[in-house]
Write a structure and sequence with these properties.
Pfam families: MFS_1
CATH architecture of the largest domain: Up-down Bundle
CATH class of the largest domain: Mainly Alpha
Number of domains: 2
Radius of gyration: 26 Å
Strand order of the largest sheet: 1-2
InterPro entries: MFS, MFS_trans_sf
Structural class: mainly alpha
Family: Belongs to the glycoside-pentoside-hexuronide (GPH) cation symporter transporter (TC 2.A.2) family.
Order of helices and strands: HHHHHHHHHHHHHHHHHHHHHEEHHHHHH
Protein name: Solute carrier family 45 member 3-like
Distance between the termini: 39 Å
Strand content: under 5%
Subcellular location: Membrane
């Protein structure tokens, strides 16, 4: 347990650093795009590019990491590659104009906007996609319901702590320092600090040793029982030349997409309901978080982000952005507080009431922001949404661990879809012992469809436990990996950013007011309340439906 706790600390150190970069870095993206000449409706669409890429790639990452094998583990290779993308984005975004000037020898060039959009999309995509293998790594180390709830409470705590640090960095006016002015201003200084913070957190992942899953241990135990000749044949590193091994690796990668499609198309109902509820909940929260800085800067402070730096309209907008950063900082503080007591709250109140109350509170908070111009009241409401943020970071993943820990109950509502139970295996053994003829059983065995081939009763009795899992028709839920379902939940998080980003700019232009951001968030929260009531929180929910 002590070893796993240290591993959890190292994982969450990177989680915290990643959230610091996304929180502080994202605050400056809207004003930087608007300053570069991008219209507001297109600015919101730029924010959707990273999540759209994530929707395509993140499920593949989750599925591929479930079956990946390397000396560095299953999850870390994906984490490291995605982190390199985050670092590249952090380096390019604040220095876009400098890079373009060096390449074209011109102060302003049309390539500046595409390069800025590319760097932003790279950082957003890699940063958000990196959470999937990190969450899968946490679930690998803490697979049970109770321990996963504790682990993801710590995970949520570190996410919130990272957000606190990131938003606090953005809330402070650093331009009074001569060093900041020399480095290129507030944005450039913040991104340099983020780069060093992220590098320090990334270094810790080299000391993580991934534990083997139950399935891997069973596979190794089975190989160890085979003759030595078969062991050598089963080991690709010994039996195959490097070029053949490489070809097998490419084949495995190419097979990920159709395999993932098969898993998602036959998604268990409990995962589907959780996905829809989480999608609506995150969509409401993201409609608030993504555009809160623009809402405060333009709506409450009457700032103009497109004006030149130093002008009165731009100064008011920058003050509003810093005030919005303070509100989001308080949101993260609230999330940290609730993360510390989440386990006790789940035991005392229950997961259902907590989840429903979180989306109801979000609906009320965003409704107050829509009708109020009081910056203090709006900031208090922003802080209150930290409760919703904390719940969405913990409960969906805890429920996923619960479903996987008791797949017979949650992944099927039909007895014919359940795996064989121990009493069923005993009946099969009894039937085999009473049989003296070689035969082939077709159709059903004790109510379960499938075929059981064998050459003799003795041979079959000796290998029944192994063959029954291979020859019975496998159910999709039985083949699902934790990484796949976590990736599906993360896809809900990514999709929740795509829809607001694509349409919010047009909605704001239609109503000529940034207050439309908060109004849409409130309406989406009401939709989330309905779908959240359909989530399966315990076995009784399945029986009731």
């Amino acid at each position: 347990m002590h070893g796993r706790i240290s591993q959890l600390f190292l994982i969450n150190a990177l989680t915290c650093g990643l959230e610091v970069c996304l929180a502080a870095g994202t605050i400056y993206i809207p004003p930087m795009l608007l300053e570069a000449g991008v219209e507001e409706r297109f600015m919101t669409m730029v924010l959707a590019v990273g999540p759209v890429l994530g929707l395509i790639v993140v499920p593949l990452i989750g599925s591929a990491s479930d079956s990946w094998r390397s000396k560095y583990g299953r999850r870390r290779p994906f984490i490291w590659v995605l982190c390199m993308g985050v670092l590249l984005g952090l380096l390019i975004i604040p220095q876009t104009s400098t890079f373009i000037t060096l390449l074209t020898k011109q102060q302003r060039h049309w390539l500046e906007v595409p390069l800025l959009v590319l760097a932003i999309s790279l950082m957003e995509f890699c940063g958000q996609a990196c959470f999937t293998p990190l969450e899968a790594l946490v679930s690998d180390l803490f697979p049970g319901e109770e321990e996963s709830r504790k682990a993801f409470s710590v995970y949520s705590l570190m996410l919130s702590l990272g957000g606190c640090i990131g938003y606090l960095l953005a809330a402070v006016d650093w331009t009074t320092s001569d060093t900041v002015v020399y480095l290129g201003g507030q944005e450039a200084f913040i991104y340099i600090v983020l780069t060093f913070i992220f590098l320090a957190c990334l270094m810790g992942t080299t000391f993580i040793s991934e534990e083997k899953t139950v399935r891997e241990r069973l596979g190794e135990a089975e190989v160890s029982r085979k003759p030595e000749k078969l062991k050598t044949r089963c080991c690709p590193c010994v039996a195959f030349p490097r070029f053949l091994l490489l070809r097998r690796t490419y084949s495995s990668l190419l097979s990920v997409a159709p395999r993932l499609y098969s898993l998602c198309s036959r998604m268990p109902k409990v995962i589907a309901r959780l996905f829809v509820a989480e999608l609506c909940s995150w969509m409401a929260l993201m409609s608030f978080m993504l555009f809160y800085a623009d809402f405060v800067g333009e709506g409450l402070y009457n700032g103009v982000p497109s004006e030149e730096p130093g002008s009165s309209g731009r100064i008011r907008y920058d003050e509003g952005v810093r005030m919005a950063s303070l509100g989001l900082f308080l949101q993260c503080v609230t999330s940290v507080i609730f993360s510390l007591v989440m386990e006790r709250m789940v035991l005392c109140i229950g997961a259902r009431k907590l989840y429903l109350s979180s989306v109801v509170l979000l609906a009320v908070s965003t409704a107050v922001m829509t009708i109020s111009n009081n910056i203090i009241l709006v900031t208090i409401m922003a802080a209150a949404t930290g409760y919703t943020f904390c719940i969405l970071q913990i409960l969906p993943y805890t429920l996923t661990c619960l479903y996987h820990s008791n797949a017979q109950v949650f992944f099927s509502t039909d007895r014919h879809n359940f795996p064989l139970r121990e009493e069923d295996l005993m009946l099969v053994r009894a039937e085999l012992l009473s049989s003296t003829k070689q035969k082939r059983t077709n159709g059903c065995v004790n109510g379960y469809p499938g075929t059981i081939p064998f050459h003799s009763n003795i041979q079959k009795l000796q290998s029944l436990d192994l063959h029954v899992s291979i020859t019975m028709d496998p159910q999709p839920s039985a083949l699902r990996g934790m990484g796949t379902d976590i990736a599906i939940l993360d896809s809900a998080y990514l999709l929740s950013q795509v829809v607001p980003s694509l349409f919010m700019g047009s909605i704001v232009q239609l109503f000529h007011s940034v207050t439309a951001y908060m109004a849409c968030a409130s309406l989406l929260s009401l939709v989330a309340v309905y779908f959240s009531s359909k989530i399966v929180f315990e076995k009784a929910d399945i029986d009731a439906r």
